[in-house]
UniProtKB/TrEMBL annotation:
Residues 1-135 form the Mut7-C RNAse domain. This is Mut7-C RNAse domain-containing protein. SUPFAM superfamilies: PIN domain-like. InterPro entries: Mut7-C_RNAse_dom, PIN-like_dom_sf. Pfam families: Mut7-C.
Length: 152
């Protein structure tokens, strides 16, 4: 459910691990315990919709339904602002920090970024405008969160 949020946090530069990357529910009895222990071992922040689970770790309890508002809840907790910087981004697929590639870029793009792990390529293309619009919605939601007016 929070997978889109996970991908966005990676794009914003936050090292983010999704629950399904940590827990195989077919192999453990208590998924929550595995997540709590993972967060303790890695000094990680748990992002969850589960109130009981949130009480067991340093956590952000997500109450919003829209991704921009969810991002705003996390950024408020962290005390950070919303901005896109491809040079600081992580691969939304595998979480590795992407690298700028300037030599021999394919297509019409001056600059691309490549993930050193999964080799996916990223660029500022037509989709960038949509991403900037999402960040604008995040900024508006963040202002509402800071005023205490965000309700999922």
């Amino acid at each position: 459910m929070l997978l889109r949020l996970c991908r966005w946090l990676r794009l914003l530069g936050y090292p983010t691990v999704a629950a399904h990357e940590v827990v195989d529910p077919t192999k453990v009895e208590d998924e929550d315990e595995v997540l709590v222990e993972f967060c303790r071992e890695h000094d990680a922040l748990l992002i969850t919709r589960d109130r009981q689970l949130a009480r067991r770790a340093r956590a952000v309890l997500i109450t919003a339904d829209s991704v921009p508002e969810q991002i705003a809840e996390v950024l408020e907790f962290l005390g950070d602002e919303a901005f896109l910087d491809p040079d600081e981004s992580r691969c939304p697929e595998c979480n590795a920090r992407v690298r700028r590639v300037t030599a021999e870029n394919p297509g019409p793009f001056e600059v691309t970024w490549e993930c050193p792990e999964c080799r996916r390529k990223y660029w500022v293309g037509g989709h960038w405008r949509d991403m900037e619009e999402t960040i604008d919605r995040v900024k508006k939601a963040l202002r509402r969160v800071q005023r205490g007016h965000l309700r999922g």
